[in-house]
Amino acid sequence: MTNETANGTDALVIAGEEIGSRLIMGTGGAPSMHVLREALTASGTALTTVAMRRVDPSARGSVLDVLTECGIRVLPNTAGCFTAGEAVLTAKMAREALGTNWVKLEVIADERTLLPDPIELVEAAEQLVDDGFVVLPYTSDDPVLAHRLERLGCAAVMPLGSPIGSGLGIRNPHNIELIVERAGVPVILDAGLGTASDAALAMELGCDAVLLATAVTRAQAPARMATAMRHAVEAGRLARLAGRIPKRRYAQASSPFEGLASS
Amino acid sequence: MRIVIIGAGVIGLATAWRAAQGGATVTLVDPAPASGASSVAAGMLTPVSELSYGEEPLLRLGLASRDRYGAFAAELAEATGLDTGYRDDGTLQVAFDADDLKLLDDLRAFQESLGIPVEALTGRECRKTEPMLAPGVRGGLLAPEDGSVDPRRLAPALLAAGERLGVRLVRRRAEGVLVERDAAAGVRLDDGTGIPADKVLLAAGPWSGDLGGLPPGTVPPVRPVKGQVIRLRTPVPFLRRTTRGLVKGSSVYLVPRADGEIVIGATQEELGFDTRVTAGGLWELLRDARELLPGITELEFAEVTAGLRPGSPDNAPLMGPTALPGLYLGTGHFRNGVLLAPVSADALAAMLLDGPVPAVAAPFSPARFAPEQQ
């Protein structure tokens, strides 16, 4: 979904709200609060997701404090939930604690793969949408499931590139293209990115945004990788909007041979 | 020189002892000495296997402290007749699957780039070193100079050593710092009485940020980071040395003691001042420990505890003077309080007594978090 806003700027809009960057960050895996702060700042992100089961909103010096101090909007997520029941409960606790009805919905099938459980995911998404949440579901890269989630009323769909934390990049670019083609809500590539070219590819495929954490937080120099990701997302987005050339079998000289000056 | 130290964990206790050796009159204030992280910690002395990218100064501090431990433990034993359970028989770090081995290879390359000797072992060699390891273990690293100490023996020994040199222990809560003429002049206790001092050291771990009377800019940026730890008991030799494992991307360690205790740790949770033991915390520790050493399920369960590490924004301690003259910080040691006790005590005692401070402690001044630098 390519959405140029009314005033002509190329902004990411989710549920009617403009988000200042197409790079959405996660916080998991950061070696320290200091490194996290540097990386988030370098990424230029405007929206960052936090696992509600892993923070106490009333505690001092937490990840939430870092986000507040950096002026970054918090997107609570339901990481660690295996059932729709747990995910719905966690989302409601997040709404109460943080005063936001936005939630990144994660319902995980098993710990080894951390792949989404599609049946529980749909169940939880239904309940949360009905309850007035702005639901951003983390889904597998299945175009049918992604479309189903959109029809349920989800505000975006977040297909994975590959399993969480794997750094394997986008394993099925064709599926991502199919999801993008059909989507009427923003498509946010979530999970599996390893390096900057992966993020650029996601945007070239037409995704509206990218969400990543591990690729930055576990890099040797997280702030540097965050800068790389920021540029990659911008580059990929511009390339998508610019329209790439068709691929061809044989060369085509960039300057014409005809009309060369002859001596 | 009258010094009051707030907090009798391993850092406060060790500094009190060193400062008393230096001739100071030292008072320790703590309602329950050595009852925080110092009573929960496993006592690993493993700066090499703890190494993280970007934390090289902390590695140097950890190595300096580890290298002081032998003499430190011997001196304590001589002064008090108490054993600290100190061991320097190396630490084995193993990888459970191929993904874990890649992480370990990455760590080894980083360790070697810093000139730290580690020995790479195959899975077979790991199991020869520790026969109880699971057959699937893919490989490991042996850090031959890392070791462990028993914090539950260390803390009483430090207190006894201090008391022999006249360190006074006041079992009350410190409510605030007394300030006179824009300088720290002592500590106010929860019964309203005050203890005058020339210098005050705030070493109250995760509670260091809660002390009253601190002027703006001197409140240390520390937060509690919860850790759950299990203690098992074995009547037969089960594990020879401290063994850390990467198990399907998750970390676990087991620290054996001479008396048959095996400490399994530790979760790392950002939940404020919460010390509840949870089903999930226990399950994760036992799950990973059992993957690594299937035989642990046969051992006797002894204890489970949850403690609070004093986390700082960059995981490194805050040691040195503050914007309030006379007030010093010795906190924020996070996962490394026991390891860093000897070098921290030397550095903090030197600062309090205006002696030469070890150069390795210089990067850890609280000034690095001063508001104007942010």
TrEMBL record, chain B:
GO terms for biological process: thiamine biosynthetic process; thiamine diphosphate biosynthetic process. GO terms for molecular function: flavin adenine dinucleotide binding; glycine oxidase activity. Gene3D superfamilies: D-Amino Acid Oxidase, subunit A, domain 2, FAD/NAD(P)-binding domain. Residues 1-19 form the signal peptide. It catalyses: glycine + O2 + H2O = glyoxylate + H2O2 + NH4(+). The keyword Metal-binding does not apply. Pathway: Cofactor biosynthesis; thiamine diphosphate biosynthesis. One of its GO terms (cellular component) is cytoplasm. The keyword Signal applies. Its EC number is 1.4.3.19. It comes from the Bacteria. Keywords: Oxidoreductase, Signal, Thiamine biosynthesis. It holds the Pfam family DAO. This is glycine oxidase. It comes from Actinomadura physcomitrii. The gene is thiO.
